[in-house]
Specification:
Elements lengths: L1 H33 L5 H17 L2 H11 L7 H21 L5 H16 L4 H36 L10 E4 L6 E4 L5 H30 L11 H17 L2 H7 L9 H20 L6 H17 L5 H6 L31 H4 L7 H28 L5
Helix pairs in contact: 1-2, 1-4, 1-7, 1-8, 1-9, 2-7, 2-8, 3-7, 4-5, 4-14, 5-14, 6-10, 6-11, 7-8, 7-10, 10-11
Length: about 400
C-alpha cells in the first residue's frame, strides 16, 4: 500500500515539477533567448543545473518550512500526495487563465488547508509567510521605481547590448592545443555584456530552484515510506529540467509578450531585483513566488521611468499641472544623440509616444491569481481533509 501511494506521489511530483520547469525557464531565459544570447537548448541545460544548485542549498530551508513549519505535526506521505494533487490543480487553473503559476503560494495554501482541517496549523508561521507575501510586491515595486527613476536611464545611455553576426567564440587551432578566441565579429564590449547577461540568467535560475524545487519535493519528504530530502530534490530537479527542455521552448519565445515589451537591459534589472528578493526570502525559509517579485519590479521600473518629469517636491505639493506622465517611457528606443533629461524635465517625443509599458488587464489578472490560487487550494484542501480525515 505504501509503495502504491509513493508511486502516485512521484507521478504527481513529476507533473508539478514539469509544469514549474515550463513556466520558470521561460521567465528566466526568455529575454536572453529572444536577444540571441543563448539557444533554447543551452538555456534549458543551464537552467537544470542551477535549479539543482539552488534547490540543494538554499531550497532546503524552504523545504523545511513546507514539510515541518506550517503544520505542527509531520506531513505524512498520504497527506503529501493529496497536497501535490491540489498543487497540480492550482497549476492547471493558472494555465487555463494563461498566467504564470504562483506555485509557492498554492503549495502553502494546500498545506494550510490540511492544518486547518486537522487543527494542526502553525498560525505564527502562516502569519509570517502572509506578511512577506504582502511586503514582497511592495518591496519589488519601490525598488523598481528607484531603479527606473534614478538608475536605468543613466545606464541605458552608456550600455548597449548587441549581438553581432556569427559565433561569439571560436576555437583557434593554430597552436598545439585548440584555444578559445573571439568570433570574426566579436568585440570586447559584446563579449562582456553577453557574459553579464549569462551570469544574471544563471543567478535567476538558482533563485528559481531555491523557491520552486521545494514545491515539487517537500510534500513527499518525511512520513512513513516517504522520500529522503536528497532524493526528492533530485526528482524535482529532473522534472523541472524536463519541462525546461520541452514545454518551456514555447514559453521562452512568448515570455513578456502580454505583460511588457521592455528591452533586454531593463529585463536584466528586473531579473537581478526579483532574484535577490526571492533568494533572500528562500534563505530565510519563506516560500515565495519568483513571479510575484518579477511582475511588481517590472511595474515599478516603468513607473519610475515614466515619472522622471516630476520632481519629488512637485509630487509632494501636487504642483504637476504642466508635467505629463506616460507609461510608455521604458520601452522607447532613445537615440544616442539625445541626452537623458534630468529629473523634472520633460521627456523627448520618442519616449512620450512609446507604446504602453504594460497591459493593466494583465496585471490585474496576475494579481488576482495571487489571491485566487492559494485561496482555492486552501479551501479545497480543507474540504477534502474534513471529508476524508483518514488521509491526513
Amino acid at each position: 500500500m505504501v509503495e502504491t501511494v509513493l508511486l502516485v506521489g512521484v507521478v504527481a511530483s513529476i507533473f508539478v515539477g514539469f509544469n514549474i520547469g515550463g513556466s520558470s525557464t521561460g521567465i528566466t531565459w526568455g529575454p536572453s533567448v529572444g536577444a540571441g544570447i543563448v539557444t533554447k537548448t543551452t538555456a534549458a541545460a543551464v537552467m537544470t543545473f542551477f535549479v539543482f544548485f539552488g534547490g540543494w542549498t538554499v531550497g532546503r530551508n524552504v523545504m523545511k518550512t513546507l514539510s515541518e513549519g506550517i503544520i505542527t505535526t509531520d506531513l505524512t506521505l498520504t497527506a503529501g500526495v493529496a497536497v501535490l494533487f491540489f498543487i497540480g490543480l492550482g497549476i492547471l487553473v493558472a494555465n487555463l487563465f494563461g498566467v504564470p503559476v504562483p506555485t509557492s503560494m498554492t503549495t502553502v495554501g494546500a498545506i494550510a488547508g490540511l492544518g486547518l482541517a486537522t487543527d494542526t496549523l502553525n498560525y505564527a508561521t502562516i502569519a509570517e509567510i502572509l506578511s512577506w507575501w504582502i511586503v514582497t510586491p511592495v518591496l519589488g515595486l519601490w525598488i523598481g521605481v528607484i531603479i527606473g527613476r534614478y538608475v536605468y536611464p543613466a545606464v541605458n545611455r552608456r550600455v548597449r547590448i548587441e549581438k553581432s553576426d556569427g559565433p561569439l567564440l571560436v576555437l583557434d587551432r593554430g597552436g598545439r592545443l585548440p584555444t578559445p578566441a573571439f568570433g570574426p565579429n566579436t568585440t570586447w564590449s559584446e563579449f562582456t555584456t553577453t557574459l553579464v547577461v549569462f551570469v544574471i540568467g544563471c543567478y535567476m535560475a538558482f533563485s528559481a530552484g531555491a523557491s520552486n524545487v521545494p514545491n515539487a519535493a517537500a510534500p513527499l519528504v518525511g512520513g512513513v515510506g516517504g522520500l529522503g530530502t536528497d532524493t526528492a530534490i533530485v526528482l524535482a530537479t529532473l522534472a523541472i529540467g524536463f519541462g525546461g527542455f520541452t514545454i518551456a521552448r514555447r514559453t521562452m519565445e512568448s515570455v513578456g509578450g502580454e505583460l511588457s515589451d521592455i528591452p533586454l537591459l531593463a529585463a536584466l534589472f528586473v531579473m537581478i531585483t526579483a532574484s535577490t528578493i526571492t533568494t533572500t526570502l528562500s534563505w530565510l525559509g519563506i516560500p515565495i513566488s519568483l513571479v510575484m517579485a518579477t511582475v511588481m519590479t517590472i511595474v515599478g521600473i516603468g513607473w519610475g521611468r515614466a515619472t522622471r518629469p516630476v520632481t519629488v517636491r512637485e509630487a509632494v505639493t501636487g504642483d504637476v499641472e504642466n508635467r505629463d506622465i506616460e507609461l510608455g517611457a521604458i520601452v522607447a528606443e532613445e537615440q544616442e544623440a539625445t541626452p537623458t533629461p534630468a529629473i523634472g524635465e520633460q521627456e523627448p517625443d520618442e519616449v512620450i509616444d512609446a507604446a504602453n509599458l504594460f497591459n493593466p488587464r494583465a496585471i490585474v489578472k496576475y494579481v488576482s491569481m495571487w489571491v485566487i490560487g492559494p485561496s482555492m487550494s486552501t479551501i479545497l484542501a480543507y474540504g477534502f481533509f474534513i471529508v476524508v480525515p483518514g488521509v491526513a
